[in-house]
Amino acid sequence: xxxxxxxxxxxxxxxxxxxxxxxxxxxxxxxxxxxxxxxxxxxxxxxxxxxxxxxxxxxxxxxxxxxxxxxxxxxxxxxxxxxxxxxxxxxxxxxxxxxxxxxxxxxxxxxxxxxxxxxxxxxxxxxxxxxxxxxxxxxxxxxxxxxxxxxxxxxxxxxxxxxxxxxxxxxxxxxxxxxxxxxxxxxxxxxxxxxxxxxxxxxxxxxxxxxxxxxxxxxxxxxxxxxxxxxxxxxxxxxxxxxxxxxxxxxxxxxxxxxxxxxxxxxxxxxxxxxxxxxxxxxxxxxxxxxxxxxxxxxxxxxxxxxxxxxxxxxxxxxxxxxxxxxxxxxxxxxxxxxxxxxxxxxxxxxxxxxxxxxxxxxxxxxxxxxxxxxxxxxxxxxxxxxxxxxxxxxxxxxxxxxxxxxxxxxxxxxxxxxxxxxxxxxxxxxxxxx
Length: 435
Known about the structure:
Elements: E1 23-26, E2 29-32, E3 36-39, E4 46-49, E5 52-53, E6 56-60, H1 72-79, E7 83-85, H2 94-102, E8 106-111, H3 128-145, E9 151-158, H4 160-163, H5 167-187, E10 193-198, H6 203-209, E11 215-220, H7 224-232, E12 240-245, H8 266-282, E13 287-292, E14 309-310, E15 313-314, H9 316-326, E16 336-342, E17 353-361, E18 369-376, E19 389-390, E20 393-397, E21 400-404, E22 410-419, E23 425-434
Parallel strand pairs: 6-7, 6-13, 7-8, 8-9, 9-10, 10-11, 11-12, 12-13
Antiparallel strand pairs: 1-2, 3-4, 4-5, 14-15, 16-17, 17-21, 18-19, 18-22, 20-21, 22-23
């Protein structure tokens, strides 16, 4: 993506498959594993599952169950999605696959490849121990799930090339990836293998060193059209999949007075999801579909930056995906936050009381409920889950609220959540600095 961002954990043309897969047991029944093919040519590529055309209407969903027991795959089904994406073998567990099968969802199963940092904890040049460990992980994981009927494809690596800055390591990583793609094909000739690039940044390495890849994944937080054009002009003769897409990241937005990235309003994010989803569909035949990022719990950049939801509440972005994936309309629209202001955002003393003004509007005239939270505000950290809620006290008087600031010094985000009683929520946040 030509920028610094959080890593997520997370076919030469057509490949023909003719093997009969062994049966696997799911929910008390014997189910046959899926046979997935990519056929056609540039502009008319088609993904098929057991002989039937299948266009990916996906959502990235790393965990099936939330911290509070939320059923995120049920929520994924409610978006109208037909496919889920995971990033690592720790996410796509047996329970995850079984839940996906229960809801009629397919899985793009992620296999994480570490990038090589400046500290060089691992190396693709001479770290035989790491590579052997990764090979064994892949063998075990592929053999365990290759016959599961919910499996759609394997996703080997996510932006690993982009985050590896050494050119020698990038080349070594790409060559190792080719070995892993060939290994997965040998273990499971019935499902395609893809890699998720940071936009098109990793494409030159895939072109040169990974000829066995079945489709090229792109994580796009900008323009689908620009990325499509760059892919189209490349020598890659394989379709692409938009393996992540969503609102602008912290690398593309303004910083506030505290140096924190300014989170976009719900309506702006919803418009981005709508426009990007439609652009992906407009290029159907060149691509095989895409995955809106993210459904479930992420805390990268903030507790709410990427989420289509908040717990089991549905945000405006959720409903934009729903409308395109299903052709339907929400029976009740989420509220819209009109004002969210803090009396101070910096030079706050520990335990100081801050005034908050929050006001939301509801198109359906539903009574609205306001709740608040405070979290840490770390950005640019390459981990699954980064920020967590911290204790804070709030009091309410109409649309005027008061917050007692955290007692520990540091940078935080203050959130308002407004729900309408019909499963919808609007949210906004501001940074504060306790000094």
